[in-house]
Specification:
Elements lengths: L3 E5 L5 E5 L2 E5 L17 E9 L4 E7 L3 E8 L2 E5 L4 E4 L3 E6 L4 E7 L11 E8 L9 E6 L1 H4 L5 E5 L10 E2 L5 E6 L6 E3 L5 E8 L1 E5 L5 E4 L3 E5 L5 E4 L4 E7 L6
Parallel strand pairs: 13-14
Antiparallel strand pairs: 1-20, 2-3, 3-4, 4-11, 5-10, 6-9, 6-11, 7-8, 7-10, 9-12, 13-15, 15-22, 16-21, 17-20, 17-22, 18-19, 18-21
Length: 251
């Protein structure tokens, strides 16, 4: 097929609210249902949460889901039924493999220097694992040093090529998440994959793919299909999340 670029503006994303929480959804999620907008490639959920001090998600269950969390500001306190507990801060990635079943809580962390003074802003993303029913697992890594150079850093991957990479392992063999913090004017060459999902989390950037460059602001995303090797140029200091997926659900 010929390549396609589908731009989704942050202001157009569906919003759900709970006490102290605002969530913007890229796809159908929970009680929010959009026919024809259930996934892109292998990506089932791409939620942007803002959580006030004292708020969060109390203990709840998951099954057979790969959950990747990236914090933009603040700190996330997490605890699960497998005995994992800690905090996730900007520059660190967390992967929870729910497997045959896990319970966890995710709340604004009100400990540590300044943690309780600012809102928590995070992006959480879900995919289906290649092998359902596995033992639950958790992994977290700090990639702040790798991100300092402004290049794309593979923060989560199930691809064999990334076995020795810096990121967490993902139970999906044809998907990888890359993050970059480019300074204004920095150009990034994006992966060549059947599906890409490009999300500008902070700042502004221009995406060069398809017929004409597209300006993206914080909260905007582009869904690309067979678009070759597009380029992204930061027009201000920025933070971008790029999913590389070599197959899609139902392919």
């Amino acid at each position: 097929m010929s390549g396609s670029v589908d731009v989704r503006r942050g202001a157009d994303r569906a919003v759900t609210t709970h006490p102290g929480i605002e969530t913007r959804h890229a796809f159908s999620f929970g009680a929010h249902h959009e026919p024809g907008n259930t996934h892109h490639g292998l990506l089932l959920a791409h939620n942007e949460d803002r959580i006030d001090p004292g708020a969060g998600y109390d203990t709840h269950a998951h099954r057979d889901t790969e959950i990747v969390t990236w914090v933009l500001t603040g700190a996330l306190a997490h605890a699960d039924s497998e005995g994992h507990a800690g905090e996730l801060r900007p520059g660190s990635v967390q992967r929870v493999s729910a497997g045959r079943g896990i319970e966890h809580s995710e709340r604004h962390a009100a400990t540590g220097p300044g943690a309780g003074a600012e809102g928590l802003h995070l992006v959480q993303m879900w995919l289906l694992p290649d092998s359902p029913g596995a033992a639950p697992d958790h992994e977290q890594r700090d990639l702040s040093a790798a991100l300092a150079g402004g290049d794309l850093v593979t923060v989560a991957s199930g691809m064999a090529r990334d076995d020795d990479g810096p990121g967490v392992r993902l139970g999906v063999a044809s998907a990888a998440l890359h993050v970059a913090r480019p300074a204004a004017g920095r150009a990034l060459e994006l992966p060549d994959a059947e599906y890409l999902h490009v999300h500008v989390a902070r700042g502004t950037a221009t995406l060069s793919a398809g017929d004409a460059p597209v300006a993206l602001a914080a909260g905007d995303a582009a869904r690309l299909r067979a678009a070759g090797r597009p380029a992204l140029t930061a027009t201000t200091d920025a933070e971008v999340l790029v999913w590389e997926m070599h197959e899609g659900l139902g392919d």
